[in-house]
Specification:
The protein has about 600 residues and is α/β, with parallel strands linked by helices. The chain is built from 28 helices and 17 strands. Helix 15 packs antiparallel against helix 16, helix 19 packs across helix 20 and helix 24 packs across helix 28. About 0% of the residues have low confidence. The structure holds adenosine-5'-diphosphate and zinc ion.
């Protein structure tokens, strides 16, 4: 049991550091408990959603404890920015990875040996080199932080083998506390992290996975591009965002089309050469208001706090990927949108991809199962956030009030009769036709195909004139989404019945369907996350001031100050250094370095 007074001193210095170095008034629970455990020398396993504030959990103990904190992170592209951000706060930080030349490496090694570092970021592949281990053993180490700890889990991470070697830490440095961090929630991954990294004795800290500042919206796709354009123009005209598409070609189409519409958009996918990819990623991080249009190849380790929206123009395959991708929005805690459109075509395309993918039957069945859960999320008429969290075994007691179904409760209608008609026309035409033809039959159309197959004589012919084309599509989509029907891929998207439709077909079960409405202007989020009374001219002037500093120091603008800090300045209008020091995110270093310039901008603005 450590000395109580020593402990109190350590915790109060943790709090001092939070305020003086980072400029934040208080910890977000459970940061304080985690920091306490690590400062006391315990191991910790931290599960927190993206944007939850994991970094402070090792940064502060690394500063408080004797020696250098070693952070193992696979995100090499980000190390430079992470270190720059620390240096700006006055924390003595450095990184070791393959981008450094021999001289720089030697310099950093010397600084470490001489006890001149608070934090050292190391790439996993470098960690297991004998030279690095030897160096670490000769130095005073305050803690090991294992970032993105889910990389040890078996589902094929590039860094997996290097991460597995991290079990060495326990044996080589039994006295040094280890803190493993991840945003990946599931039980199996957690068990594997504990097992692989020998964290059996670690305290576990599991923060809720809710991201209350993200507004979830899922709408029906009718004219995808126009819907998306409207969303951008009305709500995010100059914001940074990520757009996900299923195919490489589509990312390029959409990116160039957005450029034509006057947006600063760039494509990103694994088929682009490495230099272009790196350039696009860099511009996304460094410039303001860049939209990246990407396949899922983009995102891992994109640590940009001011992404204001994540849009899905195609349906993701699982809720896990949807949640992870949307989680890249609003890491700074400011309002952000997760916006998605989807349609029957998406379902067909995804099922097709799964059917033709490699992998055994069991794997395919698991994939189908996860896709069904995703479709369920799209079609539900209750709170999306409650459903999302429930999927991750978390309960949200009340509807959230910040998703589309909460803001504009969808209407339902009794679709029993329509569903029966849809199922029976499918059955009577021998489950060999796609949705368009089936709708033609129901609506009594006179197409060549109908006469070719003699479908004008089916009993279903013309019995569905009461609904229009879109309404029928909606019925079929919901039947497929709920698993009453499936799409036969050998037959080019023919619909067929599933066992579960029997009670419905026989009239023993009824079904409530969602009434599709054309997306109306839902209550709008503000364009930029500005409070209503903020003066746009001042906001722009502060952004310009930030941009100049950022460019000068070669860091992304948010490393200087987050949007939230600028916004607070707009509201509190600090006139002197004391007032400026009260802004959240202004620590001693930043106060000294940037305070005068920003105060001048505010003064000039007020005088004008
Ligand atoms: P994660 O690594 O969990 O995704 P970060 O550590 O990057 O999250 O933190 C997300 C954002 O929240 C950062 O901008 C960070 O500065 C901010 N933050 C973290 N802790 C606090 C706090 N106690 N008070 C205010 N802001 C915080
Ligand atoms: Zn809700």
């Amino acid at each position: 049991m450590p000395d109580y007074t020593v402990y109190c001193a350590a915790m109060s210095s943790a709090h001092d550091i939070l305020q003086s170095v980072f400029g934040y008034p208080s910890f977000r629970p459970p940061q304080d408990q985690i920091i306490e455990a690590v400062i006391l020398g315990d191991d910790a396993l931290v599960l927190m959603p993206t944007g939850g504030g994991k970094s402070l959990c090792y940064q502060i103990p690394a500063i408080v404890r004797e020696g250098c904190g070693v952070v193992i992170s696979p995100l090499i592209a980000l190390m430079q920015d992470q270190v720059s951000a620390m240096l700006l706060l006055g924390v003595r930080a450095a990184f070791l990875n393959s981008t450094l030349n021999a001289d720089s490496v030697r310099e950093i090694e010397q600084a470490l040996s001489a006890g001149e570092l608070d934090l050292l970021y190391i790439a996993p592949e470098r960690f297991s080199q004998a030279r690095t281990l030897q160096l670490l053993q000769q130095s005073s180490i305050s803690l090991f932080a294992i970032d993105e700890a889910h990389c040890v889990s078996q589902w094929g991470h590039d860094f997996r083998s290097d991460y597995l070697r991290l079990s060495l830490l326990h044996e080589l440095f039994p006295e040094v506390p280890r803190i493993a961090l991840t945003a990946t929630a599931d039980e199996r991954t957690r068990a594997e992290i504990i097992n692989r990294l020998q964290l059996g004795h670690a305290q576990q800290f599991i923060a809720g996975f809710d991201r209350p500042n993200i507004r979830y919206r899922i709408a029906l796709k009718h004219n995808g591009k126009q819907q998306f354009l409207k969303f951008l123009q009305e709500e995010h005209a100059s914001d940074a965002g990520i757009v996900y598409c299923l195919s490489r070609k589509k990312t390029e189409d959409i990116a160039y089309w957005l450029q034509d519409q006057g947006f600063n958009a760039l494509p990103y996918h694994a088929g682009l050469d490495a230099a272009t990819r790196a350039d696009h990623q860099r511009r996304f991080l460094r410039e303001e208001g860049v939209i990246i249009v990407a396949t899922i190849a983009f995102g891992m380790g994109i640590d940009k706090p001011d992404v204001r929206f994540v849009a899905h123009l195609d349906l993701p395959k699982t809720i896990e990927s949807y949640y992870q991708e949307t989680g890249r929005a609003g890491r700074d805690g400011q309002a952000a949108d997760a916006w998605m459109i989807y349609g029957l075509q998406d379902v067909i395309k995804l099922r097709q991809m799964m059917e033709t993918s490699d992998g055994d039957e069991e794997h395919k069945r698991a994939e189908q199962h996860r896709l069904n859960a995703m479709l369920g999320l799209c079609e539900i008429t209750s709170c999306r956030r409650q459903a999302l969290l429930a999927y991750f075994a978390e309960t949200l007691a009340q509807p959230c009030g910040n998703c589309d179904t909460c803001l504009q409760p969808p209407q339902t209608w009794d679709g029993t009769e329509a569903a029966r008609k849809a199922l029976s026309v499918t059955y009577r035409s021998n489950q060999r036709f796609g949705v368009n033809h089936l709708i033609d039959v129901l609506r009594g159309a006179e197409t060549d195909k109908i006469f070719q197959f003699d479908h004008q004589h089916l009993t279903s012919y013309g019995i569905g004139k009461d609904l229009d084309n879109n309404q029928w599509r909606s019925v079929f989509r919901q039947l497929v989404a709920r698993g009453y029907m499936s799409v036969d891929l050998e037959r080019f998207g023919a619909l067929r019945l599933e066992e579960s439709c029997r009670p419905l077909l026989r009239g023993e079960e009824s079904i409530q369907l969602r009434r599709d409405i054309k997306q109306k202007a839902a209550k709008r989020q503000t364009k930029t996350p500005l409070a209503a009374d903020v003066d746009i001219a001042l906001w722009e002037a502060l952004r310009e001031c930030r941009r100049v500093f950022a460019q000068d120091q070669g860091v992304p603008p948010y490393v200087i100050f987050h949007d939230s800090a600028l916004q607070e300045m707009c509201v509190t209008l600090p006139r002197d250094m004391r007032e400026f020091s009260l802004v959240s995110g202004v620590g001693e270093r930043k106060l000294e370095k940037y305070g005068p310039a920003f105060i001048r901008v505010i003064g000039d603005h007020l005088a004008a």
